[in-house]
Design brief:
The structure holds 2 protein chains of 2 kinds. By secondary structure, chain A is mainly β. Chain A has a single domain, classed as Immunoglobulins (Immunoglobulin-like, Sandwich). In chain A, the strands form 2 sheets. In chain A, strands 2, 4, 5, 9, 10 and 11 form a 6-stranded mixed β-sheet that branches. A 5-stranded antiparallel β-sheet of chain A has the order 1-3-8-7-6, with no helix packed on it. Chain A is globular and about 40 Å long. The N and C termini of chain A lie far apart (38 Å). Helices cover 0% and strands 50% of the residues of chain B. Chain B is built from no helices and 11 strands. In chain B, a hairpin with a 2-residue loop joins β5 and β6. The chains are: A mainly beta, B mainly beta.
Chain lengths: 111, 115
């Protein structure tokens, strides 16, 4: 049972353009959503998060949007840079429980 | 910057053997986790640990798995009798709280290969 789904396994974007990574979830009780970034041979690194009571959170080039009615969130990276090339994991949690991850989307940013 | 460290980075073991994966969480963190990622699949939760006991575990974490905090700094995952399907990247993580808006910090992972 995939509670957190990232339906696009990969995304290719040109440097300077916007990258949009999507994530859907099935459990409407999730309180908090996080995006992690992972380079090869490294562990996931926290990137940005959003509470279920908000619909947008912005941190520099990274913005996360939450659409609770659609059970959908997205991560926007503007402008995209070659160093952003990595696997991006969407994760969600209920209060007091562990993170539940999606399968990840591999972003490739070409110069 | 404090970080979670895992050893070894790569472990090869024969099927049926016991293996212990080691982690040193961030020093002031109180909540510890193990996750794994089978090649090409999602990062899966195994177990969380707080106050010297398991606080949550997934159905993957069966009797073959155990966790321990043998001293004030290490957090270990033991697999008693490894199977081929245990081959995966194992990630340790820690956090200073279990409130919903707390992110977990991950180690670089241990690649376990069961042959």
């Amino acid at each position: 049972d995939q509670q957190v789904k990232q339906n696009s396994p990969s995304l290719s974007v040109q440097e300077g353009r916007i990258s949009i990574l999507n994530c859907d979830y099935t459990n409407s009780m999730f309180d908090y959503f996080l995006w992690y970034k992972k380079y090869p041979a490294e562990g996931p690194t926290f990137l940005i998060s959003i509470s279920s009571i908000k619909d947008k959170n912005e941190d520099g080039r990274f913005t996360v949007f939450l659409n609770k009615s659609a059970k959908h969130l997205s991560l926007h990276i503007v402008p995209s840079q070659p160093g952003d090339s990595a696997v991006y994991f969407c994760a969600a949690r209920l209060a007091g429980t562990a993170l539940i991850f999606g399968k990840g989307t591999t972003l490739s940013v070409s110069s | 910057e404090p970080e979670v460290t895992q050893t070894p980075s790569h472990q090869v073991t024969q099927m049926g053997q016991e293996v212990i994966l080691r982690c040193v969480p961030i020093s002031n963190h109180l909540y510890f986790y193990w996750y794994r990622q089978i090649l090409g699949q999602k990062v899966e939760f195994l177990v969380s640990f707080y106050n010297n006991e398991i606080s949550e575990k997934s159905e993957i974490f069966d009797d073959q798995f155990s966790v321990e905090r043998p001293d004030g700094s290490n957090f270990t995952l033991k697999i008693r009798s490894t199977k081929l399907e245990d081959s995966a990247m194992y990630f340790c993580a820690s956090s200073d709280s279990d409130t919903v808006n707390t992110e977990a910090f991950f180690g670089q992972g241990t690649r376990l290969t069961v042959v």
